[in-house]
Amino acid sequence: MLGFNDIHEECGIFGVFGHPEASNLTYLGLYALQHRGQEGAGICSSDGKTLYIEKGIGHVSEVFYEKRIKRLPGDIAIGHNRYSTAGGSALKNVQPIMVNFALGALAIAHNGNLTNANALRRRLESDGAIFQSSSDSEVIIHLIARLRASSAEEKIIRAVNEIRGAFSLLIMRENELIAVRDSYGVRPMCLGSYNDAYVIASETCAFDLIGATYIRDIEPGEMLTIDRNGLHSFKAIKSTRRAHCVFEFIYFARPDSNIFDGINVHDIRKELGKQLARESNTEADVVIPVPDSGVMATIGYANESGIPFDFGLVRNHYVGRTFLEPKQNIRHFGVKIKLNPIKSLIMGKRVIVMDDSIVRGTTSKKIVKMLRETAMAKEVHMKISAPCTISPCFYGIDTPTRTELIASTHVVEEIRKYITADSLSYLSLEGLKLAVPNPEDYCYACFNNKYPIALQDMEDVDYAQMELFFA
Predict the structure, then answer these.
(1) Predicted confidence band at 465 (pLDDT cuts at 50, 70, 90)?
(2) By C-alpha distance, which of 173, 161, 321 is closest to 236?
(3) Per-residue confidence (pLDDT) for residue 290, from 0 to 100
(4) Terminal-residue alpha carbon distance, the chain
(5) Please, what sign has the CA dihedral across residues 223, 224, 225, 231?
């Protein structure tokens, strides 16, 4: 759960090529990816001659209705769910972003975060570029428009070799859909088919909703173009190593999705719980999850430890994911609105409560207090199915600053005292690596402070405290 305000997903993208109901399919795809961003949503479509765009603030179902979708004709479309990792929560920052330039119209949707956006923006502005938003995605648009090349595809290849950081891009022209993924493959991105059409999405759960078939992942460093002649793959960026975001498995991706070359999220989360039980088994009467993202790991823990599993905390799903709105004034009541304990299950028992992370510690403290004082638990033991989060993410996740991360300045025993739990255990970094296939292919920077991609202009970086690892 990560608290109701602590770490937020970056964005979700979805694209369709070659289907007469492209905008409707994109709406459904964004609906399936709603967990990746709740601030705003947008869809851009093409009828082969003109690009059409509609976007707004709010959830997908709030932004789009039948009449609005009808204003998006054509058999090509791209869509975007936004959570602001860079640029803030204004309508002008909602994607896709659409422009007209010398080679025609172009729209872009971006999942991730650039680590050299500020430097590129300053350079572009000094060359006369005028920015309409504060989103780093607009930097990519200006690069594509200004770089000299004989074709749009060559412009895009040159542009993506100038940007640094994490990016999964969907770019649409009048008769073409282009997907590009950074050379590290930080964020998930996959290709599928739907009848005679092609679809691209951040996660396979979007394919499942519309009945599409997964084909493969977009490879790190790949540019895939789809036009009337079919698929064309290019190695746009040299790829030396992979650095998939391991937090996609821990929290961000939907458990029914397969990501990073077909690995099921649900299976990994159960394995995280099993590994934690092997490392830290505690005598208890019941083990309960913090819903919803803690459920699978808790099942794994219960299966491995033999301690009975139950749902001791009930989540109010009708509140909506208000914790993903970047507002400070809702923090003081977020837990009480979202969760309530089942007193008859908890009273007088030794309880293990499992979550997927502790960020600031305030939410965990309130949960422990609720279980102890409201539900009258005899003991409350907190287990975390991930290592201590000690460093912020600069690759497309909106995380607190380093000083706000409680584990960056406190040892585990100090955190335990702060949240008032009887015991506190984290999964070790070594245990996390045992739970994922090909552990060398992941980024663990939030756990070990070792960043695989240079952070050229991040304002919150304390370079004296971090390590940069380059393959």
Answers:
(1) very low
(2) 161
(3) 96
(4) 33
(5) positive
Q: What six digits make up the tokens of 139?
A: 């930097």
Is 361 in contact with 419 (CB distance < 8 Å)?
Answer: yes
Catalytic residue set: 11
Distance of CA 214 to CAs 26, 29, 59, 203, Å?
Answer: 16, 14, 26, 10
pLDDT given for residue 132 in this prediction: 87
CA distance 182 to 112: 9
DSSP bridge partners of 171: 108, 178
Query: In which residue are the tokens 């909106």 written?
Result: 398
Question: CA-based angle 72:189:445, to the nearest 5?
Answer: 130
Q: How far is CA 73 from CA 80, 108, 200, in A?
A: 17, 18, 19
Average pLDDT over residues 136-142: 91
Report the distance separating Cα 105 and Cα 324, nearest Å.
33
Ordered by where they begin, the domains of the chain are: 11-245 (3.60.20.10), 269-436+458-468 (3.40.50.2020)
* CA–CA gap between residue 456 and residue 117 (Å, rounded): 9
Q: Which single residue is written with the structure tokens 């393959």?
A: 471
Confidence label for 337 from pLDDT (cuts 50, 70 and 90): confident
CB 246 within 8 A of CB 427: no
CA distance 105 to 177: 12
Tell me what pLDDT residue 3 has.
Answer: 45
Number of residues that this document lists for the chain: 471
Q: Could you give phi then psi for residue 81, rounded to 5 degrees?
A: -105, 135
Which of 442, 410, 440 shows the shortest CA–CA distance to 426?
Answer: 410
For residues 280 and 5, which has the higher predicted lDDT (pLDDT)? 280
Predicted pLDDT at 110: 96
**Residue 458's pLDDT is what?**
57
Tell me the pTM.
0.90
| ∠ Cα 47 52 57 (to 5°) | 145
Whether the Cβ atoms of residue 108 and residue 137 lie closer than 8 Å to each other: yes
